[in-house]
Amino acid sequence: MPQAQRRALVTAPVRGPGLDTLKQLADLVVDPWIDHDPLRIYDADTLAERVAAEKADIVVVEADRCAGPLFELPLVAVASCRGDPNNVDIAAATAAGVPVLRAPARNADAVAELAVALLLACSRGVVAADRDVRADEIYKKGTIPYQRFRAWQLAGRTAGLVGLGAVGRALRWRLQGLGMHVVAYDPYAPDATHTLEQLLEVSDVVSLHAPVTAETSGMIGAAQFAAMKDGVVFLNTARAQLHDTEALVAALGSGKVGAAGLDHFVGEHLASDHPLTTFDNVVLTPHIGGASYDTEANHTRVIADDLCRLLAGARPENVVNPEVLDRR
Questions:
Q1: Angstrom distance (rounded) from CA 67 to CA 45
Q2: Cis upstream peptide for 286 (omega within 30°)
């Protein structure tokens, strides 16, 4: 099919210079899922129907399910604007000869920035202090704020990163910029020189940045919390499945964990009466680590650049199933 006839259905949020590139590559139908109220996420059947109706041969998604009937259509490529394209049936795409593109590290800086925000907020009592000011309780129960919100400074302390991928690396230099000593555990990163046990023993701050796999699910449980320093600050801006929440609540209750910042909950929901909501030294955010406009600009650029390579006959840098290219 001549390039001038390429047509792309884009259901991901897109912006920035990469969008201009996409417009040069194909006729675009841009209909981001996140702009709908209520939110719209296509299942595999509905997405295939929409792609067929639009006569699109390129599909760019973020949340929609790509599987089954989609890969019965004559597609040039499917692009998932995620680091891990877990919304795409890779095996089905490969069997159909459809290359799948992804956007690694698209939100690394955004998530790292939120990790810093959570660290400062929970360790310095920012949220509780703000609440006191708004409630006209600066001198609560006859105390002064200096008494209630004293904390150890971060400079000179040790931060342990569990996972040294794109987000871990983006956080490492930020924490070093705060004057912290940073160590890391990651069996797949040669420059991560600590075991998990060593990291837990020496770290004043423990921050999780690993993917959820059979190996990592529940990796921080009661035994690991017990092995941490007294008063440790615990951060998880990755996935709640990495830690045992009941064990965390117990460690907070005993004072073993001195503060925590969490950006994810199983099922994307935390009940209002959950024990975590009762601690003033816990800051909770609803999975907003990657929620930046820059994330959208980044994944648009990465996908657009790889589509340029693919359509020019070159090998994309971020193709999940490169074996399909060898069949062409």
A1: 8
A2: no
Kindly state the helix (H) or strand (E) to which residue 282 belongs, with its residue range: strand 282-284
pLDDT in tens, 177-188: 999 999 999 999
Judge if 308 and 210 occupy the same domain: no
Q: What is the mean pLDDT of residues 61-78?
A: 98
The token pair at 60 is 């760019």
In the 8-state DSSP scheme, what is residue 196? Answer: H
Tens of pLDDT, residues 205-256: 999 999 999 999 999 999 999 999 999 999 999 999 999 999 999 999 999 9
Among the listed residues 1, 2, 5, 10, the one whose alpha carbon sits nearest the alpha carbon of residue 303: 10
Catalytic residues: 239, 268, 287
Could you read off the pLDDT of 269-280 as tens digits, one per residue?
999 999 999 999
| H runs (alpha helix) in 10-63 | 17-25, 44-54
Give the residue numbers spanning the domain of 181: 108-284
CATH of the domain at 306: 3.40.50.720
Query: Tokens 């929440």 belong to which residue?
Result: 245
CB burial of 67-106 (b: ≥16 within 10 Å; e: otherwise) equals beebbeeebbbbbbbbbebebbbbebbbebebbbbbbbbb
Q: Tell me the residue type at 127.
A: V
Strand intervals (E) in 51-157: 58-61, 77-80, 100-101
Mark residue 142 as left, alpha or beta (left: phi above 0; alpha: psi -120 to 50; beta: remaining).
left
Read off the pLDDT of residues 77-98 as tens digits, 9 standing for 90 and up: 999 999 999 999 999 999 999 9
316 shares a domain with 238 = no
